[in-house]
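Ticket #4471: structure export looks truncated?
Reporter: QA, pipeline team
Priority: medium

Steps to reproduce: submit the single chain below to the structure queue and open the exported record.
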Amino acid sequence: MKCFFGVWCMWKKLLAWILVTVILTGYGIQIVEAFDQKENVRMEKVIEKPDQNSLYAKAAVLMDADSGRILYEKTGHQAMANASTTKILTCIIALENCDLDSEVTVSTLAASQPKVHLGMREGQKFYLKDLLYGLMLESYNDCAVAIAEHIAGTTGDFAKLMNDKAEEIGCEDSYFITPNGLDAKNENGFHHTTAADLSLIMRYCIKTSEMAEQFLTITREGQYQFSDIDGKNSYTCCNHNAFLQMMDGALSGKTGFTGNAGYCYVGALKRDDRTFIVALLACGWPNNKTYKWADTKKLMQYGISRFRKISLDEIELDAGEYAPVQVVDGQGTKIGEEVTTELEVAPVKENVELLIEKDQEVHIEYQLSRKLYAPVTEGDFIGEITYLLGDEVLAKRVVTVKNTVKRIDFCWCVKKTAELFPM
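Actual output as written to the record:
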């Protein structure tokens, strides 16, 4: 009887597993069994490219953080309000421009900022480092204004720093007015960015900036305690970026919400040798606070499941395509011989390492002159090698002349004739 009961339990588990697999497969989800160090089985979703209608966000981007390539987007270049995700830009500007131990004095404007706020009072003094934790962990609006005024004097002057930095990073359609991301507009437009630009800013914060490590240290802290400089008031900040505990390899992120922007989020994750960034704008309104986590996990899992890293430097070129090229009327060692010059292929300057889908292959296109006319000089441009992924140009390598070849002239002819008939 016990044997029968054991077999029946085993079959029940098997049938349940098959049923779950069938249901999930029907929704485009596959199941992968992966064993951790304790030999426990965990299930991990492996999904195909998400249908845009399956995302809650009105605008979304999945970016390869190493190359800056967009791997997936849904209206990724539409200008939209972005709430407190703005604070990642405020934070990195502060890190790059100020001593963390510098003293910040609270102004009337900073003390009057609406919730969410630290509750600072006019005249209070704080160390900049402490306010950055309040800015990024709790998203305090008064901390943002105090930081901005400390750096630039006024929030207006700080906004100019923000817009200049955004342009430097490569943002194409962003305009910042407030350091905390509260909705605002002026004669030049409204406070906004795009999902694509927001991804670029996060990429800069965690990859490109010389203060990237400090940015990651702050934004990954679970809890932080500090006091004002006088030591009269103590504060505790807790990190509200729940994504840090949702997926292995979560690196950083920032939430945001205003009535105009809705729920917004930008976050980064590193898995093996790949780093992904997800940016979401207008991802639901109350009471749909969790929509941003569902979209983030879906896009991150799509990236993990479908993309592999390649190095363009490791793709072997066809040696025959850039073999030595004939130089017509070029001076050689003797009259009548064919003269050639070798070619120099420049290294890949950008996007050396990037992510492509597992079933994709990079195609190489050669556009080179097959015949040159003397004179040619070392370094002369004769064409380029293009790396293509479908119709997308990934990178180009310039090809130049390696050896100078002079044109045949009267003096050269006399010299070579004399060599044929020595005295």
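Status: closed, not a bug. The export was complete when the record was re-opened. Leaving a note from the reviewer for reference: The radius of gyration is 30 Å.
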